[in-house]
Amino acid sequence: MTRDLGATDIATHRDGFVTVVEIRRPPHNFFSIDLIRSLADIFAALDTDPECRCILLAAQGTSFCAGADFSGRERSAVPAQQQKSNLLYDEAVRLFLCLKPVVAAVHGPAIGGGLGLAVMADFRVTCPEARESAEQGWRYMTEDFKEGIAAMSERRAPQFKGK
After folding, report:
1. 57, 21 contact by CB (below 8 A)
2. How far is residue 102's CA from residue 2's CA, in Å, rounded to a whole number?
3. Out of 3.40.50.450, 3.90.226.10, 3.60.15.10, 3.40.50.720, which CATH number does the structure's domain 2-68+96-156 have?
4. Using one digit for the tens of pLDDT, what is the confidence trace for 56-73?
5. At 88, is the pLDDT very low, low, confident or very high (cuts 50, 70, 90)?
6. Which residue has the higher pLDDT, 9 or 148?
7. Do 75 and 35 meet the contact criterion of CB atoms below 8 Å apart?
8. Residue 94 and residue 117 in contact, taking contact as beta carbons nearer than 8 Å
9. pTM of the predicted model, to two decimals?
10. Please, what is the Cα angle at 22 between 1 and 20, to 5 degrees?
């Protein structure tokens, strides 16, 4: 199965009981709200699929995910001050709701929200080229969102070590 978000941005295939979910926005795999929403939809569907026992999150290109795509930034008709929540964060939180084990194959930089994709996984497999950074993204997250991520991460991964 392949999800098409303009260009083939997410592909899935099954290898035994493992479903590989691959982000296809090389070389850096920048994400948008639509991409995160589609990942969350796929994870939710796989969560109810008895033939899937584990999800492997991977990506094409040189980066696992270098963060948000600011070139085509989505604009809301509602001013930011009047929004009750952040649409991107709402979709990202859905990823943490998946009960199936998730393994992230981090083969290159995971920056900002891309690091969030790696951290939401139960396990991470990395290589010497993998790099992590969240300095800019963490600065702009709301305190409520940081607390929510911390609470959900306790269930998934008590510690993240970028070694």
Report:
1. yes
2. 19
3. 3.90.226.10
4. 999 999 999 998 887 765
5. confident
6. 9
7. no
8. no
9. 0.75
10. 70
**pLDDT band for position 158 (cuts 50, 70, 90):** very low
- Give 22's strand partners: 11, 58
Q: State phi, psi for 102 to the nearest 5 degrees.
A: -120, 130
Q: How far is CA 142 from the centre of its chain?
A: 18
SS (H, E, C) the chain: CEECCCCCCEEEEEECCEEEEEECCCCCCCECHHHHHHHHHHHHHHHCCCCCCEEEEEECCCCCECCECCCCCCCCCCCHHHCCCCHHHHHHHHHHCCCCCEEEEECCEEECHHHHHHHHCCEEEECCCCEEECHHHHHHCCHHHHHHHHHHHHHHCCCCCCC
Contact 57, 102 (CB under 8 A): yes
State in Å, rounded, how far the first CA of the chain is from the last one: 33
Neighbours of 43 (CB within 10 A): 23
